[in-house]
Amino acid sequence: MTIIFSLLYFIQVKRFINGTGVYYSKVNIMSQWDNKKTEDLFQAILALKNIKEAKRFFRDLLTEQEIIEFSRRWQAAKMLDKKVAYSKIGKETGLSSTTIARISKWLNRGMGGYKLMLKRLNHHHGLSLYGKRLC
Known about the structure:
Blueprint: H1 2-18, H2 26-32, H3 36-46, H4 51-61, H5 64-81, H6 86-93, H7 97-109, H8 113-125
Helix pairs in contact: 1-5, 5-6, 5-7
């Protein structure tokens, strides 16, 4: 879920920067994200049954660049959880050190969404550092 919250914030900031939307301050966005509309979005996400459906839904919902950005952030969170150096994360993901630091902040002091998913996916799938099967 942390990825989704980041996604909603990223989309608003991107729209402001590109001049395609109304500017909302970070405080305003954060105080407004937990509402019926976002719950509807989360219910739609929870209704997805497999990767194929997720790809179709998220490609309709997001631009290709937004999907790429969030996959980079997820990769960074997985690498940070394994104590990989910021410099290596930056090289492998293309993310700035500022973005990596922000992900680290949310990983360690956020709402627990990153930790929840890392634990669940690593336990459920027996995954190694980059999502490859150990067996």
